[in-house]
Amino acid sequence: MSRDDVATLTHHFEVITQRIPLHPIGDEAQYETAIAAMNGLVDAGAGDEAHPLGPLLGLLGEFIADYEKVEFRRSDAQPAEVIRLLMEQHGLKQGDLPDIGSQGVVSELLSGKRELNRNQIARLSERFGVSPATFF
Fold this sequence. Notes:
By secondary structure, the chain is an all-alpha fold. It is 60% helix and 0% strand. The chain is built from six helices and no strands. α2 runs antiparallel to α3. The longest helix is centred in the middle third of the chain and has 18 residues, at 54-71.
């Protein structure tokens, strides 16, 4: 790799990391920046594996998940509490989660009348970039 290549890569990396934290998240401010960046990437279609920014979204999701494992770990939290917390953090309403069911299903999940199934756990885990174990 030539010096020019390294200089070009360095410039591009600096531009990207000004908007997207590509390092372990250390505090709430970095976490909020990472969540905003993740939402922007998802909105841009990067959730599709074929999208050129898909790997970037995956890496960012790993940093977010690692931070959430440490900061939001509550062994006594019920799945409904975890979902409510994640919805609040991401500014979502029941209707914003059609991938886990209708508003009625989401309401039943949040009230504890219904338990999450395997598919719903997988979708929530992917959507919020957290481990499936978060919902057990």
